[in-house]
């Protein structure tokens, strides 16, 4: 998971970075709001830790600009200020939680892990591939806003290929996924499902989504 730290106190920034890396995060760090805004807008993060008292662009304005640009990652704010109004202002700007300095490492770790869990629970399980939308929870597929009627097996084939976008999936791998172990597995039926899916998913411009890689299998690639 990818995390952004925006903190102007060098020693504290290093301490947080080491702690987050120990938790398994890949970490980028910035020392002022301007640099933090650049990182936040250019890259995708699973979490951001932002100090409110930053030079150039303060933390509240940084959060506000990130939210306005469509960034939805959880944000934990750090503040040395004791005024509750600063915390409220940070939360109203779009932050999800806060810690007041000084804080214990254990508390920071607990807040970060809680935000990550909460974010994962709220994440939409609907994926967009150009004109194609796949909602995995509802097992709903839409092409250019119109619902595509798929059988359960057709949906399972599409789901597996889409989750592995860009990767070549062999017929045997698809067969293993599609059929439960108490069913007779027949890889020839995969070709039937693929053929039916292609007909149902071809849009008005003739663009396809599932491509045959001769001798290897199939690849889901909307832009190919």
Short description:
Helix content is 42%, strand content 21%.
Give an overview of the whole structure.
The protein is built from eight helices and twelve strands. The protein is an alpha/beta fold and 224 residues long. The chain folds into two domains: 121 residues, Response regulator (Rossmann fold, 3-Layer(aba) Sandwich), CATH 3.40.50.2300; 95 residues, Arc Repressor Mutant, subunit A (Orthogonal Bundle), CATH 1.10.10. Helix 2 packs parallel to helix 3 and helix 6 packs across helix 8. The longest helix is centred in the middle third of the chain and has 18 residues. The two termini are 28 Å apart.
Which descriptors would you attach to this protein?
224 residues; alpha/beta; Rossmann fold; Arc Repressor Mutant, subunit A; 2 domains; five-stranded parallel β-sheet; four-stranded antiparallel β-sheet
In terms of topology, how is this protein built?
Blueprint: E1 2-6, H1 10-22, E2 26-30, H2 33-42, E3 47-51, H3 59-68, E4 75-79, H4 84-93, E5 97-100, H5 105-122, E6 126-129, E7 132-135, E8 140-143, E9 146-147, H6 152-163, E10 168-169, H7 171-178, H8 188-201, E11 210-213, E12 217-220
Helix pairs in contact: 2-3, 6-8
Task: Tell me the CATH superfamily of the largest domain.
Answer: Response regulator
The CATH topology annotation of the largest domain reads as: Rossmann fold
Tell me, briefly, the overall form.
elongated
Alpha-carbon distance between the two ends = 28 Å
Extract low-pLDDT stretches.
none
Number of domains: 2
What is the structural class? Answer: alpha/beta
The average pLDDT value, as a whole number, equals 85
Rg, Å, rounded: 23 Å
> Biggest sheet, strands in spatial order?
2-1-3-4-5
Number of helices in the DSSP assignment: 8
Helicity, as a percent range: 40-55%
């Amino acid at each position: 998971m990818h995390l952004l730290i925006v903190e102007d106190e060098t020693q504290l920034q290093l301490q947080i970075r080491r702690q987050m890396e120990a938790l398994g995060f890949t970490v980028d760090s910035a020392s002022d709001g301007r640099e933090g805004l650049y990182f936040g807008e250019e890259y995708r993060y699973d979490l951001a830790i932002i100090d409110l008292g930053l030079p150039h662009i303060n933390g509240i304005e940084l959060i506000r600009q990130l939210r306005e640009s469509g960034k939805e990652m959880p944000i934990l704010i750090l503040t040395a200020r004791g005024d509750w109004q600063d915390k409220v202002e940070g939360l109203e700007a779009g932050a999800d939680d806060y810690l007041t300095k000084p804080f214990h490492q254990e508390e920071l770790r607990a807040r970060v892990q809680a935000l990550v869990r909460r974010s994962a629970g709220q994440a939409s399980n609907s994926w967009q591939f150009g004109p194609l939308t796949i909602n995995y929870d509802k097992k709903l597929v839409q092409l250019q806003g119109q619902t595509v009627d798929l059988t359960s097996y057709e949906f399972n084939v599409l789901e597996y290929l889409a989750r592995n976008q860009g990767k070549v999936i062999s017929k045997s791998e698809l067969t293993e996924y599609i059929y439960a172990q108490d069913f007779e597995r027949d890889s020839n039926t995969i070709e039937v499902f693929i053929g039916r899916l292609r007909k149902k998913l071809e849009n008005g411009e003739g663009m396809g989504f599932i491509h045959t890689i001769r001798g290897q299998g199939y690849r889901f690639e909307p832009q190919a």
